[in-house]
Write a structure and sequence with these properties.
The chain is α/β, with parallel strands linked by helices. It has helices spanning 45-53, 60-78, 84-96, 103-118, 125-158, 182-191, 208-219, 232-238, 263-273, 304-307, 348-355, and strands spanning 3-6, 17-20, 24-28, 38-42, 163-167, 195-201, 224-227, 243-247, 250-252, 257-260, 276-280, 286-287, 308-309, 312-313, 325-328, 335-338, 341-344. The protein has a seven-stranded mixed beta sheet, with helices on both faces. Strands 1-4-3-2 form a four-stranded antiparallel beta sheet, covered by helices on one side. A four-stranded mixed beta sheet has the order 12-9-10-15, with helices on one face. It is globular and about 65 Å long. The N and C termini lie far apart (44 Å).
Length: 361
């Protein structure tokens, strides 16, 4: 079982994942923010899997990072083995089964599998797997900063003055290795003096925008305004918004982006109102095996998230649809920002070229 600890009277770090010297993984419980600062400590892979499934930890890359540490915890608990592949097989399967849409999970666990494959019984396997998990964490943070810089430069390319930016969902330090993807771009743009105000959608049904993004922007002293999801068209029409910036959990070979539900609608509205639309994602999110976004089976969450109001549960008597993600077609996307570079007006050829091993960085 996850162990929870409520913290008060201390400076809160925006980083949601921390490896402790006591060989435990500390996760900031994002279900409790912003009202309470609660940390959960995991001592094994099962607790990490529970944390991912219950959304203690959430967000594309954060899920992958936590899973990598979960394998390190599993190896630490085993201690020694003549067949590490067999010893850790169930833990890999358990962690991989916690999420089906977010590609960072399979990416991070793939790195851990490859690390394990190269090790022998002569190696200190738990220590080597921990090193690999830490490397996954650090590489994500570095990639986020690279994306932030590239996105900031693009925002400042046409106008050097402060601009108005709309964000959807939460893809900042809480959802990553410590800086953020879409919110990382906003953070970098703010540091460069390019942000007048950030418009934050509430992001139904779990209110990740109003609970988490608004809190992160407040912590960073970035000027922001929260709005209900259905006000996006009104704001684009009347508030001279320059950019919509979103993160993707997966990008198909043709450039379709699988993002937090509601993103597709924002992209349609942005095109109608002449607002530039930016998708920010690590290059590993580009899935060349997925031809088009609609080929992916998208996750749905419990109807309770729509029908629970405080302590009260209502019964509408009709079925409930609660999709977590939707697909934004490539022809609605102005630019995809990755740590490897920009892809403007994305298509299959451009994305394949970006992730080609022959490409020089």
């Amino acid at each position: 079982m996850l162990q929870s600890k409520t913290v008060s009277g201390e400076q809160v770090s925006l980083e949601s994942i921390e490896w402790l010297s006591s060989r435990r993984l500390r996760l900031l419980d994002q279900r409790r923010l912003p009202d309470r600062i609660v940390y959960c400590e995991c001592s094994g892979a099962a607790e990490v899997a529970e944390a991912i499934a219950s959304m203690v930890v959430r967000g594309g890359s954060a899920i992958g990072i936590a899973a990598a540490y979960g394998i390190a915890l599993a190896a630490e608990s085993i201690g020694s083995s003549d067949d590490w592949g067999a010893a850790l097989a169930a833990d890999f399967d358990m962690l991989e089964g916690t999420q089906s849409t977010v590609i960072s999970l399979s990416w991070a666990l793939g790195i851990m599998r490859e690390t394990l494959r190269k090790l022998t019984v002569q190696h200190d396997v738990p220590a080597r797997l921990l090193q690999a998990a830490i490397a996954v964490h650090e590489s994500d943070r570095e990639a986020n900063r690279s994306m932030g810089k590239l996105g900031m430069q693009l925002i400042g390319r046409r106008q050097k003055k402060p601009q108005r930016i709309m964000l959807h969902s939460n893809d900042g330090a809480l959802a990553s290795g410590g800086y953020g993807t879409s919110l990382g771009v906003v953070r970098a743009a703010h540091e460069a003096g390019l942000v007048e105000v950030v418009y934050i959608s509430e992001t139904r049904p779990l209110l990740q925008g109003s609970r988490l993004t608004a809190w992160e922007l407040s912590q960073a002293d970035i000027p922001a305004q929260l709005h209900i999801d259905s006000a996006a068209a009104h704001l684009m029409k009347n508030e001279n918004i320059n950019w919509v910036v979103v993160a993707a959990d997966r990008i198909a070979a043709n450039g379709d982006a699988i993002c937090k539900t509601g993103t597709y609608a924002l992209a349609v509205l942005a095109m109608h109102h002449g607002v530039r639309f930016m998708v920010v994602a690590s290059s590993y999110c580009i899935d060349l095996a997925l031809e088009v976004g609609d080929d992916l089976s998208l996750e749905e969450r419990s109807s309770r998230e729509l029908l629970q109001f405080g302590e009260r549960n209502i019964d509408t008597g009709v079925p409930v649809s609660n999709p977590v993600f939707d697909v934004t077609p490539a022809d609605l996307i102005d630019v995809i920002v990755t740590e490897k570079g920009l892809v403007e007006r994305p298509d299959e050829r451009k994305l394949a070229d970006l992730v080609s091993p022959r490409r020089l960085h």
